[in-house]
Amino acid sequence: MIVKKDNLGASCILIFCIFVGTLVLTAMLGDSTAVYDKPLVSEKPLVVLKESLPDMIDRLSKSCVMVDCTVSRGSGVFIDDNVVLTAGHVVDSYREGHFGYVLGEGGKKHMVIGSVRDPYNDCGLLYIMGKSEHWVELQDLESPRAGTAVISITTPVGMEELLNTASLGIVAKQTCKIGSMFGPGDYLLIDNEGNPGCSGGPVFDLDGRLIGIVVGTYSGYGNGIIVTPANICARIGDGDETVYEDSGNP
User: Fold this and answer.
1) Least trusted range by pLDDT, from 31-40, 48-57, 207-216
2) In this predicted model, which residue has the larger pLDDT, 77 or 89?
3) How many helices and strands (H and E) does the chain possess?
4) Which of 45, 91, 93, 167 is 20 to 30 Å from the Cα of 111, by its Cα?
């Protein structure tokens, strides 16, 4: 390369500045190659599942039911061999009609013979004739935080062919006061889409634990479901409930 004499000095100064700048930058960063050895995205999984989602849904669905109380229909889940947890307003429908049954996996029906309803929050129990082979434990769990992945299992009203339809979503809000329609408790908002008939349907976390039941839907900023958390449902039977009985209620 031919460099004119009048530009030689300027060229030397530029090369020297680049060389010095490179040395300073290397000293500041240390071993620059180490920066790029680390992955830009965490290799740690967001959720570690104890079983696959299909296996979990298959297992949990065996405890879930459609509830038909003549006046209205809903969903529910066995929490004992003869007790179904559902929404309080579904229990009210049974009280008015004094007839009801639950439909489970395999088309097996159980007649409803009694009920208990929380007078303050939208949750209740139905007692059935006979026994179910499958149920889930109702625990007094702390409400899951926003962002927690959850599964709801419900049955759209009048659609037995869609019995126990599963939907995957997240907790949109951990605690929310809904108003007098559902009761004074703190409710969960879930971003799963709800349909008529979903009331009483169970919501599980990805460990398969029952975290609440669906009691309604909300719209406006997106669509989702309103859930009575398990720590409220677990209080049913503590002596502060309204009991509706038929003959033969256990």
Assistant:
1) 31-40
2) 77
3) 5, 13
4) 167
Give 3-state DSSP helix, strand, coil % of the chain, rounded to 5: 25, 30, 45
Catalogue the long-range contacts made by 166-174 (C-beta closer than 8 Å, 24 or more residues apart). Answer: 166/57, 166/61, 167/192, 167/193, 168/53, 168/192, 169/224, 170/146, 171/144, 171/145, 171/146, 171/147, 172/146, 172/222, 172/224, 173/146, 174/143, 174/144, 174/145, 174/146
β-pairing, 202-205 vs 149-154, is antiparallel
Side chain identity, residue 199: S
Tokens representing 41 are 């995205």
pTM tops 0.85: no
pLDDT at 250: 37
What are 135's two structure tokens?
Answer: 């149920």
pLDDT of residue 50 exceeding 80: no
What is the Cα–Cα distance from 93 to 71, expressed in whole angstroms?
Answer: 5
Distance, CA of 70 to chain centre: 28
51-82, pLDDT tens digit by residue?
788 999 999 999 999 998 877 788 999 999 99
The per-residue pLDDT for 138 is 92
Q: Which CATH number fits domain 53-136: 3.10.400.10, 1.10.10.10, 3.20.20.80, 2.40.10.10?
A: 2.40.10.10
Mean pLDDT computed over 16-34? 58
The 3-class SS string of 180-198 reads: CCCECCCEEEECCCCCCCC
| Cross-strand partners of 114 | 127, 245
Question: Could you give the CA distance from residue 140 to residue 169 in angstroms, rounded to a whole number?
Answer: 22
